[in-house]
């Protein structure tokens, strides 16, 4: 996927929400979907089980219209969090321009976060993508839960965010931090325009 | 002082609460340019008097110091002149234009929005003026920080001076403005009319003046003076009409008619997260897209500074969206690299051409290439074959038939047949003649033919090394269509020449260009020649050019005699041809001796004279004669009567002596 297509004058950003199962990736997309005017959004594709677990992936296209002469669109994807869907995760990750790692802030999910992050790195490496070059932000979701159940942002940064990228505490269910996260990753992705030229 | 409206002066400016601060700052600056608020940035909505204030400063400053150079221009004009300067390659001249300006008044800088290259120029200008203690005053319809796409460096520079705004005039000021303008127009209105106009809702001074003009026109066309009610109705402000006479009821009230306001107040909408997101993304995208323009603009300034034409990049700038600028900039840089390489070569081959305009136009590299090619050909063409030696005039006989026919074949068929063509033969047998004849035949087919002796080749290379001009020397030969080298055996022991010859050989062979060589030494006997070169010479057609047989000598002698005498004496020619000669040169030397003797004796050359000269009586040649003699004279009365018994010529004496030594 090309981030910038000068010929067609298009900017297309594929952003993948990654993270352990039940961390709130789909909730992020649902919140965004609810805030995007109907004229700007495509149909949100969500393949879920009866238990609302993402079976395949969620896909939300957003049309931002013409910006500086470029038709700009964002495509938001989530991956299925459960470990046995790794093939699907790899598929969704292909051609991603940026990644939002949605971590579950609950202390009991600490290991799941670590495992998922390692899985992300493995899958990126497998696709020949230098993890250090991939725009990524962290979202620490479920910060609305009682303090004694969740880890603080600093603790999660220590554990996950060793590259020191931007991180956002969030309550995706109620929308807190959702757009901040999206803005954060969007800016990183779009700034690659100037640094590296058109992405391959 | 340029571009100032004489009407816009401080004394025609109505100062009210809304513009008092700006007017005070402007007066201060006008009285002492460059000393207090520099730069001074004034912003206000359209029609509130920015331009008036700006020009008033110009008039006031020039009034105080008539020597002060005051320049007023709009941002539009600045953009236009900058673009024209860039397009015309006069960027530096554009900068110099402002070098002597003491007070620069730049109006409506919001038009510089998104014009990164012009902004960069403005930054330079601001810096230069400030450094020189000159004043710059700018106006805009919004604060610097709200001008979309305005360079942060500019914003910081403006903030470093004084940024001040002009508010909408209050009711009293509006009335005062209307009164003053009515007086200036010589029109008197009934009480309450101007007050009604001031209450009509126009906050912009320009609209206010427009309203006044309508009133003046209406009153002029009416029989009776306008009253307040009519004025209010005329200006579409019925509510104002009812109260106009009672005073200023609507003073400072925000106008209700949004259409009349250029920028209606925007109520803060309920928080719209998507709109926020969209706004941020738009800003980022704009910034990134504009960064391409900045890069292109930087490239324009850089290359223009080095004297190159940048029309191609300027066209990119002019386009709304540039195609992938990386590609365009890279291609442009590559073209310049090529131009530089051509320039470097020209500096060596034809220094007079090294400043040619073709070398500075990346859009027409082909022209520079053509210039270089012409320089290679014309400035210093490789040595051509001697026109005196023609292939047709080379005598063919039984002894040299193979070699001569092979040469004709090469001349006819070109490089497709025998390449390289190598002629081996002793000194004086006609190798050089045959080689040059071949060269002339090849040249007649078109193209550049280099034909020279190996001595000359070696000397040229040494000279090129000495001048550090081997590249052009090489190019000179690598561009030829045929390369003919006489006496190739001379390069023996000259390693560098052999290297160059080897490279040239391969290049010409690969590109199917004819080569021919002569050698006085059989290839198998050559010493001091690198095997890689030797095997390549052997890889072509090697023919031997033997000593001429008697028939051939006779033809040659007859031809020489025919050229020198009126007719040919067959007996004379036959006699000389029968004399032993190991080369055509020595046979023709015999003819020369006979002719010299005849000239000395002032007789016609005959076979008898020849016999006398070559066998018997000595015919003393004058000293100037070039006849070769051993220096030992046969005694006139002695044992040796016949000169035939004497050895007059000792070819290769040294070699023979060495042979004896062995």
Task: Describe the protein's architecture and organization.
The complex is a heterodimer of chains A (200) and B (662). Chain A is α/β, with parallel strands linked by helices. Chain A has helices at 25-35, 86-93, 110-126, 153-160, 178-196, and strands spanning 4-5, 10-18, 45-48, 54-67, 70-78, 98-104, 136-141, 167-169. In chain A, strands 1, 2, 3, 4, 5, 6, 7 and 8 form an 8-stranded mixed sheet that branches. Chain A is globular. The model of chain A is unreliable at 194-200 (pLDDT under 50). With 662 residues, chain B is an alpha/beta fold. In chain B, the strands form 2 sheets. In chain B, strands 2-3-4-1-5 form a 5-stranded parallel sheet, with helices on both faces. In chain B, strands 7-8-9-6-10 form a 5-stranded parallel sheet, sandwiched between helices. In chain B, α18 packs antiparallel against α19, α23 packs parallel to α25 and α24 crosses α25. The N and C termini of chain B lie far apart (102 Å).
Biggest interface, chains and residues, is: A-B, 28 and 23 residues
Mean pLDDT of chain B: 79
Oligomer: heterodimer
CATH homology superfamily of the largest domain in chain B: P-loop containing nucleotide triphosphate hydrolases
Low-confidence stretches of chain A: 194-200
Using DSSP, what is the number of strands of chain B?
10
* Strand content bin of chain B: 5-15%
Q: Tell me the major beta sheet of chain A.
A: 8 strands, mixed
Give a quick rundown of the structure.
The complex is a heterodimer of chains A (200) and B (662). Chain A is of the alpha/beta class. Chain A contains five helices and eight strands.
Quick tags:
heterodimer; A: 200 residues; alpha/beta; Rossmann fold; eight-stranded mixed beta sheet; 8 strands; disordered C terminus; B: 662 residues; Helicase, Ruva Protein, domain 3; five-stranded parallel beta sheet; rod-shaped
């Amino acid at each position: 996927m090309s981030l910038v297509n000068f010929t067609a004058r298009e900017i297309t950003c594929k952003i993948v929400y990654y993270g352990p199962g039940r961390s709130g990736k789909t909730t992020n997309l649902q919140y965004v979907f609810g805030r995007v005017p109907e004229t700007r959004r495509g149909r949100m594709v969500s393949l879920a089980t009866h238990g609302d677990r993402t079976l395949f992936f969620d896909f939300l296209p957003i049309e931002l219209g013409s910006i500086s002469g470029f038709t700009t669109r964002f495509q938001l994807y989530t991956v299925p969090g459960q470990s046995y869907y790794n093939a699907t995760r790899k598929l969704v990750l292909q051609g991603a321009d940026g990644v939002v790692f949605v971590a579950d802030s609950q202390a009991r999910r600490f290991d799941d976060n670590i495992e998922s992050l390692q899985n992300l790195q493995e899958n990126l490496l497998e696709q020949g993508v230098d993890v250090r070059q991939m725009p990524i932000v962290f979202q620490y979701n479920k910060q609305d839960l009682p303090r004694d159940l969740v880890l603080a942002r600093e603790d999660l940064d220590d554990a996950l965010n060793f590259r020191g990228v931007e991180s956002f505490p969030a309550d995706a269910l109620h929308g807190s931090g959702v757009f901040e996260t999206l803005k954060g990753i969007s800016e990183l992705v779009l700034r690659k325009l100037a640094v590296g030229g058109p992405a391959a | 002082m340029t571009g100032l409206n004489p009407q816009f002066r401080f004394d025609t400016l109505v100062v009210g609460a809304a513009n008092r601060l700006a007017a005070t700052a402007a007066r201060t600056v006008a009285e002492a340019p460059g000393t207090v608020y520099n730069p001074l940035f004034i912003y206000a909505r359209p029609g509130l008097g920015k331009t008036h204030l700006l020009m008033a400063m110009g008039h006031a400053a020039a009034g105080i110091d008539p020597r002060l150079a005051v320049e007023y221009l709009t941002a539009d004009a600045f953009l236009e002149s900058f673009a024209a300067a860039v397009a015309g390659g006069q960027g530096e001249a554009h900068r110099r234009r402002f070098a002597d300006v003491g007070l620069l008044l730049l109006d409506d800088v919001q038009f510089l929005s998104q014009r990164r290259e012009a902004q960069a120029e403005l930054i330079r200008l601001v810096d230069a003026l400030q450094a020189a203690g000159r004043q710059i005053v700018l106006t805009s319809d919004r604060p610097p920080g709200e001008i979309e796409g305005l360079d942060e460096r500019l914003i910081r520079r403006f903030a470093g001076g004084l940024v001040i705004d002009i508010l909408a005039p209050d009711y009293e000021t509006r009335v005062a403005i209307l009164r003053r303008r009515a007086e200036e127009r010589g029109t008197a209105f009934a009480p309450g009319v101007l007050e009604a106009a001031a209450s009509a809702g126009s906050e912009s001074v320009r609209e206010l003046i427009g309203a006044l003009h309508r009133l003046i026109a209406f009153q002029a066309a009416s029989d009776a003076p306008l009253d307040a009610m009519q004025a209010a109705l005329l200006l579409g402000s019925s509510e104002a009409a009812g109260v106009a006479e009672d005073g200023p009821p609507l003073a400072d009230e925000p106008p209700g008619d949004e259409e009349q306001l250029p920028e209606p107040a925007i109520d803060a909408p309920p928080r719209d997260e998507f709109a926020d997101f969209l706004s941020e993304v738009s800003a980022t995208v704009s910034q990134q897209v504009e960064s391409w323009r900045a890069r292109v603009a930087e490239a324009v300034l850089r290359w223009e500074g080095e004297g190159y034409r940048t029309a191609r990049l300027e066209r990119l700038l002019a386009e709304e969206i540039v195609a992938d600028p990386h590609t365009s900039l890279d291609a442009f840089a590559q073209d310049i690299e090529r131009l530089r390489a051509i320039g470097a070569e020209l500096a060596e081959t034809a220094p007079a051409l090294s400043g040619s305009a073709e070398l500075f136009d990346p859009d027409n590299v082909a022209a520079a290439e053509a210039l270089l090619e012409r320089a290679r050909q014309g400035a210093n063409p490789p040595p051509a074959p001697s026109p005196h030696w023609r292939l047709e005039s080379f005598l063919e006989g039984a002894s040299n038939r193979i070699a001569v026919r092979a040469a004709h074949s090469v001349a006819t068929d070109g490089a497709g047949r025998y390449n390289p063509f190598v002629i081996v033969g002793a000194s004086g047998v006609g190798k050089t003649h045959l080689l040059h004849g071949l060269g002339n035949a090849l040249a007649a087919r078109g193209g550049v033919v280099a034909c020279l002796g190996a001595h000359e080749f070696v000397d040229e290379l040494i000279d090129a090394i000495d001048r550090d001009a081997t590249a052009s020397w090489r190019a000179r030969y690598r561009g030829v269509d045929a390369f003919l080298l006489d006496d190739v055996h001379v390069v023996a022991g000259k390693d560098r020449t052999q290297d160059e010859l080897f490279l040239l050989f391969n290049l010409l062979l690969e590109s199917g260009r004819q080569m021919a060589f002569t050698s006085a030494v059989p290839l198998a006997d050559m010493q001091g020649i690198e095997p890689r070169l030797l095997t390549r010479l052997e890889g072509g057609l090697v023919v031997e050019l033997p000593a001429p047989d008697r028939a051939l000598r006779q033809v040659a002698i007859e031809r020489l005699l025919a050229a020198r005498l009126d007719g040919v004496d067959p007996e004379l020619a036959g006699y000389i041809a029968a004399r032993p000669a190991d080369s055509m040169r020595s046979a023709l030397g015999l003819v020369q001796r006979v002719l010299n003797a005849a000239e000395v004796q002032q007789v016609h050359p005959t076979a008898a004279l020849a016999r006398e000269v070559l066998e018997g009586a000595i015919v003393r040649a004058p000293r100037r004669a070039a006849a070769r003699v051993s220096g030992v004279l046969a005694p006139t009365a002695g044992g040796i009567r016949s000169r035939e018994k004497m050895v007059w010529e000792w070819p290769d004496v040294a070699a023979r002596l060495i042979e004896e030594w062995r």
